[in-house]
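Supplementary Text 2. Reproducibility record for the structural model of the 84-residue chain.

All settings were left at their defaults, and a single model was retained for analysis rather than an ensemble. We include the record here because the model underlies the residue-level annotations in Supplementary Table 4.
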Amino acid sequence: MKKSLQNVYSPCDGFVKNVLVTPSAYVYEWETLFVIETNEKKEVEVSIGISGHITSVEISQGQNVTQNMVLTTLKDDLEITGSD
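Retained model, structure tokens:
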């Protein structure tokens, strides 16, 4: 079965309030991976529409991030899931 690496990017500027994943962890589609507090004090939950294993976590809790910064890399398991 073919595997694909996917980067997860920060959607905004701010700081990382929570890191909810670790390397080698399995994550499901739309599972919250990180919580970022924006410069405007709004919380943004970061998720991705694929499932698979985390291969690396590039940031840590309390770290400042910028929009489009790589937060983590995920190996897509290419499983099609979902519900009606």
